[in-house]
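Example 3.2
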Amino acid sequence: AYRQQTEPSVIIDVQAQHRERMARKFLEESGHPQGMYIPKMPMYYNNFSVYPHMAMQMADFLRDISINVDPQTLEWTTFLDTMRGGNFLIGRCGWVADYPDPDTFLWQLLASENAGWQDNWARYKNPKFDELVEKARVEFDKEKRKLLYWQAEQIAIEDSPWIFLFAQTANVLINPSVQGIELSGMDVDASFPNNDLFKVRIFENTAQ
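Structure, written as tokens:
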């Protein structure tokens, strides 16, 4: 059997085209063909790292489907007050896990009980999602718990309270003479905050 290989860039391009067609379809079904009658909206973001560049890129993406936004940077405290208070239409947010568990994302950021001044800034509410997450939080069986969180995640993806952009990764070079470092999903930078440094050893002979 022969299986034709497809370049990743081609796959991504096809997916992007499909999403753009679906976005245009939803706009038309909602009474806004080609973005008609949708006023220009402010899009808030905090002025950290690469976020200003991301905001400009998001504005370009939305413009491709005839939605015009005005990227506006806010000072950090003002940004938090604005997002928590719900005084926005679009805002760029991010999250780094507090502990290595799905709960720090799904319950903390999307459970309806955390809407508003807690961390569910999108004010997302779905009773079925809440039910699955609450079951997962008290489930001791690891596989059952994982399945419940996965089911809840699929609901959130389908509802799309967020525009999912990216997941942060870290690339770290470690000298072969340094042994005993165990990386986890919580280690997002080279400071290894979750590593037990008492287990780390440095050998002069890298063959050891």
